[in-house]
Amino acid sequence: MHWSLLSVASLLWIALHVVADDDWKKNVPFVGNHTCPGSAWVSNPTGFRFSSAQNAQTHIDRTFIDGFNMPYVFHPHDMLTEGQTLFVEGKVEKFCHDFSVNFMAATPLVLSAFTDGGVPLHVTINFDRSYLIIDSVKDGRWMNRGPHKFANPFVKGEKFDIRVHMFKDYNEIVVNGRKVFDSKHFLPLDVVDFISVVGDVELTSIRVEGHRFPVPYKKRLPANRFGLNDRLILIARSIGGNFNVNFLNEKEDITLFFNVNFDRKTVTRNSLINGRWGTEETEGGFPFEANVEFTLEIAYKAHGLLLIVNHREFATFFHRANTPSTDYTFIELTENIQAFMLEVCN
């Protein structure tokens, strides 16, 4: 039995009410689809699509079904597909014994052997025994892949970040930027109706976004420009070596050259305009780790580009282009980088 939080009798009582009345579904919120506080341009395989709002709760509440305070339950906006990522962020309660993240089909409830529906993915983190359970329910039975011992990356009373990267044949589980486990698909992603988070945690953000990013990757920025107070957010990781994140203009000049070099442990900023390299900038340290995910934010300010790595200000790259309001036209990612999310906040 994977559940220690609710008795089987209670779960069956809830299940009877859920089966009898589908009105509760109207109260199930959607997961977010981007991180921006207002409108956003979200990367898709052909470029960027506009999203006017997050379509998610600002303050995330637990779900009530027939007056019963359920775990966090959400609908995905569309069918889950290969290339997307589920991002779950929150805080572990100080008294937490375990909590789980679940992909659910046909029901929002995990009912062990009594499950009516399927559980394409069930991830439980157990603090008392320091193990991770990765499992699925197919045809009414658990696949019993068993507990996996691990060095617990979660700390009671501290923030956490769980990501589920969806690949063709498996889900990759990442905790606080580091890969933990690959989970084979026993059910297809497109059957997932609900996403639930169960246990003594407080959620601050949950969203599904991203797609398969071919590398090298080069796309025109929304509206052909990157303007004042716009902010680009990239979540990615290095895979096997050095990489670049560049801005280019219409003439293919590199108006921002951002090079991460693991051999020299340097982050070099520069520009290549009219065939001439500018002065290299390498101050700021080296906040990257090989095969560990990072968040890079580039914020357009009047004097230059503010570079933020893992939510900490890293450096400012002063504008070198003649007309910076129109000279940041393309975003380019080079080899040795695996991107999971790219968006522009307006």
Automatic annotation (TrEMBL):
CDD domains: GLECT. SMART domains: Gal-bind_lectin, GLECT. GO terms for molecular function: carbohydrate binding. This is Galectin. It comes from Panagrellus redivivus. Residues 72-209, 218-343 form the Galectin domain. Residues 1-20 form the signal peptide. It comes from the Eukaryota. Pfam families: Gal-bind_lectin. Keywords: Lectin, Signal. InterPro entries: ConA-like_dom_sf, Galectin-like, Galectin_CRD. The keyword Nucleotide-binding does not apply.
